[in-house]
Design brief:
The chain is an alpha/beta fold. It is built from 11 helices and 10 strands. Helix 1 packs parallel to helix 9, helix 2 packs across helix 9 and helix 4 packs parallel to helix 11.
């Protein structure tokens, strides 16, 4: 009986492998949809369209981009993860919709482990900025000020359900201090009030319009939350140069995800095609021009390990922050 059961298990396993291999050999044989869960025209949308356009030729199938936006990216992500797990629906992803949204939005009918990374696209460093008259010129001085200020320093973000307050929570813990969170509808308004002196500090990307505030002197940059200087602001010291803050390195990343149930062989096809596209100057050029650093090629396992490690770290940091599902 045991021998029969073992033979049955082995036969089923071989059939599954054969089926997966056959499926991969015919993949893709129809249209691939890239789901960007944000409005058209943003950085993620532009990157998705550049990659999707290249894959039309590389994979020999039509590729389209859809933008089912809303609820912190959870509406489009939920829709994509509900599609068949066959590789024909790819999520253009980030920490926001895959990790943060399930903590904040009722519409997020998934958890991070329901998705698997196909490839990571690029990452953007963050920087700590303050009002220009804040009496701190380095990370060490800023941390000391956080501890000794008679009232908590105030910081603004585009909302509790984003990664920004999680980063500041970690910074505050490392400084053994508290900060006052002031949520805003958008980072632009937040930066304007720092420039106006009504908010003390913020963490923002070293990309888009934000370095311009530093260039024109309307705000002050303290450190880049990285272990290397930023090409955009090369004189800005990395946070790892300050003792006690070596673990504060943080960046926003974007990538491509599919359902966790998608066959390995199909993920491998997508992985190779996406990284081949990102190796082309006409694809990666606009991504880098927007301030992102394109990741070096990774295997699907390397990309997924990176993703899940980040998810566990963010979930740990976010515990106790008082997220209320909307």
């Amino acid at each position: 009986m045991k021998t029969w059961r073992a033979l049955t298990r082995n036969t089923l396993a071989l059939l599954a492998l054969a089926g997966g291999s056959a499926f991969a050999q015919t993949f893709p044989n129809k249209q691939i949809t890239f789901v960007v869960p944000w409005p058209a025209g943003g950085p993620a949308d532009l990157a998705a369209r550049a990659v999707a356009n290249d894959l039309k030729t590389a994979l020999g199938q039509n590729t389209i981009v859809e933008n089912p936006a809303g609820a912190g990216g959870s509406i489009g992500t939920t829709k994509a993860l509900a599609a068949p797990a066959d590789g024909y629906t790819v999520i253009v992803s980030s920490q926001q919709e895959l990790i943060m949204a399930p903590m904040v939005y009722k519409s997020a009918a998934y958890k991070p482990d329901d998705a698997r990374a196909v490839a990571l696209l690029g990452h953007t460093a963050l920087m700590l900025v303050t009002r220009k008259d804040l009496p701190a010129a380095s990370m060490a001085e800023f941390a000391a000020l956080m501890k000794t200020s008679p009232k908590p320093l105030s910081y603004c973000t585009p909302g509790l359900g984003t990664l920004y307050p999680v980063v500041v929570e970690k910074m505050s813990a490392l400084a053994q201090a508290k900060a006052l969170h002031v949520p805003y509808p958008a980072l632009g308004q937040c930066l304007n009030d720092i420039a106006g002196g009504t908010v003390d500090f913020a963490v923002v990307p070293v990309a888009g319009p934000f370095p311009g505030y530093v260039d024109n002197g309307s705000i002050k940059a303290i450190a880049v939350l990285s272990n290397t200087p930023s090409a955009r602001l090369p004189k800005l010291p990395p946070v790892t140069a300050t003792k006690g803050f070596e673990s504060l390195t943080t960046s926003f990343w974007a990538g491509f995800h599919v359902s966790a149930k998608t066959p390995d062989a199909v993920v491998e096809v997508l992985n190779k095609a996406i990284y081949a596209a990102l190796a082309k100057p006409e694809v990666r050029g606009p991504i880098e021009a927007a301030g992102a650093t394109v990741f070096p090629p990774m295997s699907p396992k390397q990309a997924n390990d990176y993703y899940l490690k980040d998810a566990r770290e963010i979930e740990t940091l976010a515990k106790g922050m008082g997220f209320a599902k909307q």
